[in-house]
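Chain entry —
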Amino acid sequence: LSHGPPLPPRAPPRAPPRAPPQGGAMAAASPPAAAAPVAPALVPEVPIATRAWERLFGTGSVTHCLSNSEARRCRGVCRDWRRLAGAGACEEELWNSDLGPTRRGAAWKHLLLGGITLRQKAGTHQDYYEKLCEKESEYDSVIRRDVNRTLPQEERFREKNGEGQLALFRLLRALAIRLCDIGYCQSLNFIVATLIGIFPEDEALAFQCALALLLRYSLVDLYRPKFAKLGVVVWQFDRIVEGFLPKVHTALVRHGVNSEYYAIQWFLTLFASDLSQPIVRRIWDRFLVAGWRIVVQVGLALLYTIQDTLPGMETCNALMHLRKFAKSCPYDAEQLLNAAASFKVSHRMLSALEAAYNWEDDVQLLVIKDLNSGQVHWAVQALKPEPPSSAPRRDCGDEDEEEPPIEMPRAFSRRDSQGGGGQEPDLGGPLDGTDEARGTVLPFLIRNLDTGDETVLNEAWSQYTEDISRRAKASAGPLQATPSASPERMPAVSGEDSSSEAGRSGRTGISQSPPSASGQPQQAGGGSYWMQSVQRQAVRRLGQV
């Protein structure tokens, strides 16, 4: 404690207060006495221990030398240490309550930048932010177009070419140059705009936090060419919706859509494109603590709000409603998070589904809840195709026969990733009437580029689906798949309650894939194994940036 400015002197003792005059009105009428010297203002005495800690923590040398866990322990010693060791909040506080702009900014900075150093090298794509934001980029015209339509409801970004829009443009340009293997991708504007709202006075800090968010949480892989990871995430979410919200899944299949249609913007923007900023910030509070399962849980909570209305809608109305329903969410931030927490999604479940992405057979997530204990049991199963039936074919004109479900193609096809070749799926699929393209509603959509509204060619779509159903009935009837009950077909079963993972973001995977329907072992070239490779690439990138 020998360094630093000298301790402030002790305050002089306060003079005793002068007694009030006695005698009521008579005393008040008496001539005033001579003016007495004014006593010095009272300065509360600061204990010497507190002054010593202020000097120790005020220099910044102590807090910079402490690890994150040591800093949290310091804040837990006493109130003075909690105040001196930093304004940031611990993970529990961030999880449970809205901390406000000041403390949230410190907490996000701690979670995003704690323990890493972003490499800066002058004259390269890793240059300082002040240099990168001034360089011209090939994406400048695209960025300017997106900046003008980013969060127009927010005061900061409402004025054209205002301070907020200019800061957003500079940050997106710097990111496009820094992440040269990706450049600029739509939806990054919402990610960066949300961070500007947290760090409005420090663009360089917002840039570092955006870079750390993309790399530490592997979000950067969602924007890579061909969108390989996005395909895994979309397929994974469809299986989870099927397991937790079967009514919603059935309605989506009937309308010919899946999460590719309504949820891609949720994943790419972390809900910043659809929900208000106060709600988005609370979602990000928990996302920074617990990882991707928070995004999945919030998506399920949003779909839960329409599980009673969606099945009764016509296809045209349902498609328009799916595009907009999240923006009219009836929940506030805490209600939405509480509803999301009721869906017991765990990282082990997500990892098992990632591994199952590369299986040859169709996959089902089976979710069973024990009503007595509230514990959730789940299993990822490979569906065994039903053997050909020798029953007589039904008459095509039988009106009592239920129509077979329409098989929907996926923009991110699992077929391309099977066979161990490791080939990334292409974005988009055939629309030429082949089996891989049956039932898709996408060619029948008309999108207004000015308003963003979408309508469906209802008559043409209805005629198309009727033709597909008629052909299916005439050929083989509806195909049904039943899950196998054998233990080897249930590779990943967990009775854990994911609510206990409230501060964890670790993942565990399954050790091997189940055999295919033909009895041959399946090749493990994707899923968790693919994600592990991506994680290693992200770790190497963190060492380079």
